Amino acid sequence: MSSLLEKLTEPETWQAYYAYKSAYAQLSIKEEAQLLEFIESKAWLPVSMRLLDASLAPKGKLGIPEKKLINKLGKSTKRVVYSFAEAEQHLLKVLAWLLYCYDDAQPVQCYSFRRGHGAHKAIRQLTSLPNRDELYCYKLDIQDYFNSIDVERLLPILSEVFSDDVQLYNFFAEFLQLDEAVFAGELLREKRGAMAGTPTAPFLANLYLREMDGILASEAAAYARYSDDIIIFAESAAEIEELRLRANDLLADYGLKPNPAKEHCSAPGEAWEFLGISYHQGVIDLSQATQRKLKGKIHRKARALRRWMLRKDASVERATAAMIRSLNRKFFERGSTHELTWSRWFFPLINTSESLAGIDAYLQQELRTIATGKHSKANYRQSYTLLRQLGYRSLVNEYYRYKRFRTGYAAIGDRGFL
Question: pTM of this prediction?
Fold first, then answer.
């Protein structure tokens, strides 16, 4: 077969990529316009051709990435990400999209960044285990996973996976072994692993631990990994402790270690969390971490809108309505039934509205503080009726509307109309 790198020089590849991204509404209006202009102007052609030019040094093909420090929401720590210039970044996105043809080489127990095999499937399989309430659980998160990947250990795996595409393997060998990056205007030399933030990093991160995935899956009662998040189940306390030690030893062999702040063991009947979801004796809800992150975003948004209101001498109603519109877009309405909004991610998984009710109460409280900047009884001049008139939509109400819709849809389908 022709190399995937050659496909990057073909207009049909770029047109198919644009059609896919548009069909599934995976781009904002601005991003879609930028991509279309990039494709129609053939700005992709020079950089695509450079990848096939054997006379160019590795860094002459894609250039040197920029290293950035990104704030973690609600935390004082920062994470390191890398990015290339616009044209090169577009190229890597299309290459990552083409790499789905190697999905069968990825570990079955890894659910990250795979078509038809994602987080929803992982949650559904784990929460439907027949003996789920009788199992012990160990949850861990790999510390700085993408950037800690040992390239020398990764390359033999890529050589096996890309045995039918030597050009592709050679590109990744050159790409990953470059040790230069620009940070704050200075050139650095450092080990970068799979380079978090680059479009191909998730694919590489999936492959890197595929042997470990197979080992732990064969020894555990149940096992799943989503990128750097791992969850393991066992039938006894002794077995879960053995698997905890086994997982830590295997990670050490790969040059990795778990984040101690995110390790957690639970006994049968106790709650466990994975991918933003909490499970406790049949109840599936938002995890505590998900709730904290969302409330943090709501709080910061309310403070920003209050500052904007004071600066612009705008009315309280105008500032409150602006916040409601912003949150409604995030929660419910990004313009397409295909696009993954917050509600489309969580509503299909949870079976209770308990956490949603708490978020509703918190959101209403923060909307009311826009008026005064503090929590007080005077805030309740902003009545619930007024919030509704300004466009507020309750998460609890929308959740049960979603449930009714899904029930009705299934009933119609059962009658053969769909």
Answer: 0.87
